[in-house]
């Protein structure tokens, strides 16, 4: 039906905007959580998202294989994926240091992204995807950070091109930039 991308900086209000959008769809929403608990801070961030979500929303914890989520969407009025940047981070964190910047890793991730975007676009319900914008900040100090920025920037551009609507959230204010 429609693919909606919501981007913005860290703590910009993009997840809250996406949750409001999903809530306005009415009915049951499938919330796809990509976060993994790596430390206490991440655990607290996940807990805040859990507390904000309506209790009647479905939940699929999917840190690695997003395309599998789309196999069980019956009964939902929409899907909210929070978030693409965390999904990419999870994938890159599992790559051994000696394989950083490996073209095959990059290719596999790109193919996985293209597969789940195609699956999302084939659905009869809207899919809202949240991601962090990397184009507004400085260059990361670490090798892994720079690789993450490069891949996320490319993925964000590709999903934005495929999306029916794109919003950028700055300081809690959403701006429609496509659609």
Counted up, domains total 1
| N→C terminal distance | 14 Å
CATH architecture title: 3-Layer(aba) Sandwich
CATH top-level class: Alpha Beta
Unreliably modeled segments? none
Tally of helical runs? 5
The fold-level CATH name is: Rossmann fold
Structural class: alpha/beta
What's the CATH H-level homologous superfamily? P-loop containing nucleotide triphosphate hydrolases
Strand segment count: 7
Q: Helix-strand pattern, N to C?
A: EHEHEEHHEHEE
Radius of gyration based on Cα positions? 16 Å
3D structure, described in words:
By secondary structure, the protein is an alpha/beta fold. It has one domain: 3-Layer(aba) Sandwich (Rossmann fold), CATH 3.40.50. Helix content is 42%, strand content 21%. Strands 3-2-4-5-1-6-7 form a seven-stranded mixed sheet, with helices on both faces. Helix 3 runs antiparallel to helix 5. The mean pLDDT is 91.
């Amino acid at each position: 039906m429609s693919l909606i991308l919501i981007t913005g900086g860290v703590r910009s209000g993009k997840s809250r905007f996406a949750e409001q959008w999903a809530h306005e769809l009415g009915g049951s929403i499938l919330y796809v959580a990509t976060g993994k608990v790596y430390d206490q801070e991440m655990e607290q961030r996940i807990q805040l998202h859990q507390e904000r979500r309506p209790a009647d929303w479905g939940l699929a914890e999917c840190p690695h294989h997003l395309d599998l989520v789309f196999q069980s969407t019956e009964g939902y009025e929409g899907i909210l994926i929070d978030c693409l940047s965390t999904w990419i981070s999870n994938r890159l964190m599992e790559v051994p240091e000696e394989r950083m910047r490996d073209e095959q890793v990059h290719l596999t991730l790109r193919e996985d992204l293209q597969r789940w975007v195609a699956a999302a676009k084939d659905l009869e319900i809207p899919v809202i995807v949240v991601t962090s914008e990397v184009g507004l900040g400085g260059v990361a100090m670490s090798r892994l950070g720079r690789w993450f920025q490069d891949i996320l920037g490319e993925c964000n551009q590709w999903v934005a091109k495929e999306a029916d609507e794109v919003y950028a959230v700055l300081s809690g204010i959403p701006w429609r930039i496509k659609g």
